Amino acid sequence: MRKLFTAAAVYLGLGLIAGVFNREFSRALDFTGSTQLSTLHTHLLVLGTFFFLIALALDKVFGFSANKGFGGWFILHNVGLVWTTGFMAANGSVTMLSGPEAWGPMFSGIAGLGHIILTVSFVWFFVLLNKSVKRSERTRAAAGAQA
What we know:
4 helices; elongated
């Protein structure tokens, strides 16, 4: 459970920093357009902070961090989220500095891999959660049968 809490706290910090960075970088460059930097803090707060806080609550109820694949899932989700948001930060910065045409299709393809990693991570999360819910149901049924 400590891992989930720590991850939520780290993504809270990163999300808040991303919001301030977007505001100050835009102001310094006198940039008024839209970039991926403007949604970066939302991605970090929702897919990082809120997601891990919800996972923390689910772990408290169902103990899904006890599942065999939890460590691998945790690493994969963080890699996917850092990959995705890192490319969002790069895309937004390049757009502000050089214009949207400076970000080529090759970079978009590489950035898209982060979304694929996150998709696999979400499916894996639900597999782990499903195992935990079933285990919890069996435990409660066994406890009810003994009563």
